[in-house]
Amino acid sequence: MNTAPPPFLLRLIGAGLVVSAGLHALPAQAWSLTVAAASRRVFLHVGNGTADGNNGTVNLVSANLTAAQLLSGTPQAMTSNSTQSTSLYGDGYSTCPTPSTQVIIGASYRRSNPGNGPASATLRVTSPASLTNAAGDTIPFSQISWTVSAAGSSAPNVISAGTFNGATQTLATVPANTYIENCHTFSYANSAIRAAGTYNGRVTYTLSSP
Questions:
Q1: 1 in a structural domain
Q2: CA–CA separation, 184 and 96 (whole Å)
Q3: Into how many domains does the chain fold?
Q4: pLDDT > 80? residue 1
Q5: How many other C-beta atoms are found inside a 10 Å radius of the C-beta of residue 185?
Q6: Rounded Cα gap, residues 70 and 180, in angstroms
Q7: Which residues, in sequence order, are CB contacts of 7 under 8 Å at separation 6+?
Q8: In sequence order, what E strands does 24-143 have?
Q9: Range of 154's domain?
Q10: Which domain of life is it from (predicted)?
Q11: Regarding beta strands 178-188 and 76-77, do their DSSP bridges make them parallel or antiparallel, or are they unpaired?
Q12: Is the CB of residue 160 less than 8 Å from the CB of residue 148?
């Protein structure tokens, strides 16, 4: 008699890293806007955050699969423990209406005119090769992908959609004196039956300008 494998929990732990001083909030209406020139600085938030960038919250994206879901081979939507639905850029615009299934990501780069510093900053994400459980079993990070959206925006790909590759990936180039944001919705490919357990992995988002 065949026995269905037990359920397992897949957890993607995301961390945002502010590389330089944070920005103060300014009015915003959508996912991309021009901001006033100022001394050179970058600002990044992933999920729950604060406008000054001083927030140590690390949000969790997860998929808790039943045996039937695991055996189906069907991609599975992942949920989020983020509660951040509104833009951190000052006007409370609801960029991510359902944070339980979305993670809001926003990035800004400022520099003084006529040109104090590089013309842009780069938003990247770094993932390890695999998620692992307590028994040492692994799942390739390439099993997790994400789509992007932004409520009220006609161009939601301001930050790229993609699939983790176990390395560092470039998501966006942020021009000087620009703020961008959108929502990421994650999915587990579920392309193979895995051993039971809770699989954990951590990705880190960075925004930097040389």
A1: no
A2: 9
A3: 1
A4: no
A5: 20
A6: 36
A7: 64, 65, 66, 67, 69, 70, 196
A8: 32-34, 41-46, 60-65, 76-77, 79-80, 103-110, 120-126, 130-132, 138-140
A9: 8-208
A10: Bacteria
A11: antiparallel
A12: yes
- Backbone dihedral angles phi then psi of residue 72, each to the nearest 5 degrees: -70, -25
Residue 3 lies in a domain: no
H runs (alpha helix) in the chain: 67-72
Q: Is 170 buried (19+), middle (13-18) or exposed (0-12) by CB count in 10 A?
A: exposed
Residue 115 φ/ψ region, left for φ over 0, alpha for ψ in the -120 to 50 degree band, beta for the rest? left
Does 199 map to a domain? yes
* Token pair 């695999």 in the structure block, residue: 130
Percent of the chain as helix, strand, coil, to the nearest 5: 5, 45, 50
SS3 33: strand
Model confidence pLDDT, tens digit, residues 59-70: 999 988 888 888
180 Cβ neighbours under 8 A, 6+ residues apart: 31, 32, 106, 107, 108, 158, 159, 172, 174
Q: What is the pLDDT of residues 40-61, one digit of tens each?
A: 888 888 988 777 666 678 899 9
Structure tokens at 180: 């961008």
Q: Give Cα separations from 166 to 18, 87, 123, 127, 149 (angstroms).
A: 21, 29, 16, 5, 23
Considering the chain, what percentage of its residues have pLDDT values greater than 90?
Answer: 35
CA 117 to chain CA mean position, Å: 27
26-50 b/e (C-beta count within 10 Å ≥ 16 → b): eebebbbbebeeeebbbbbbbbbbe
